[in-house]
Specification:
The protein is α+β, with helices and mostly antiparallel strands and 164 residues long. The chain is built from six helices and five strands; from the N terminus they run H-E-H-E-E-H-H-H-E-E-H. The chain has a three-stranded mixed β-sheet. The chain starts with a helix and ends in a 24-residue tail after the last helix.
């Protein structure tokens, strides 16, 4: 399975925010759409990611208040990216090694979407469910007389040597 397969199932809805937006506006957008990250775009280009982690760090530093911070002050500008042809195994490994929950999907300079760890988990479950269904169908359709001897049958008598 590839990243493009995950995007096809997930869809191409992408929530963005400009770097000049207030952190409060970004948090309200995240809450309204029940999402854990926003793509920060400026002049049509990806310039950062704002995730739940950056928001929580700001809340902790502000002792429970977001204050007058803007997205640009809190966004992550050092993020991993992947392409549509990246395999699911490579994506999982990248996310685990980098300790990230969200990865933008880029093709050349175009942003195609963002893959979350949740999206990856759903894809793995779907893939395993499909494989299980295929294995069960294969086992159900296994020919009875092919490949395995019948354990209840008496052994075949040994043939006598030919006499000349």
């Amino acid at each position: 399975m590839k990243v493009s397969d995950i995007l096809r199932v997930k869809g191409h809805v992408l929530f963005t925010v400009p770097p000049q937006a207030s952190l409060l506006q970004a948090v309200q957008t995240m809450a309204q759409h029940d999402i854990g990250s926003l793509v920060v775009m400026e002049q049509g280009k990806l310039v950062g990611l704002l995730t739940f982690s950056e928001v929580m760090a700001a809340v902790a530093e502000g002792q429970g208040m977001l204050g007058e911070h803007i997205v640009a002050e809190r966004m992550d500008t050092h993020y991993e990216v992947c392409g549509p042809d990246t395999t699911l195994d490579t994506l999982r490994r990248t996310m685990l090694e980098a300790g990230v929950r969200y990865i933008p999907v880029m093709q050349d300079s175009a942003l195609l979407g963002v893959i979350s760890f949740h999206d990856v988990a759903q894809a793995v479950v779907r893939e395993q469910d499909f494989e299980n269904q295929m294995l069960k169908a294969y086992i159900r359709d296994w020919p009875e007389d092919e490949g395995l001897p019948d354990a209840t049958a008496a052994p075949a008598p040994a043939s006598a040597p030919a006499r000349n």
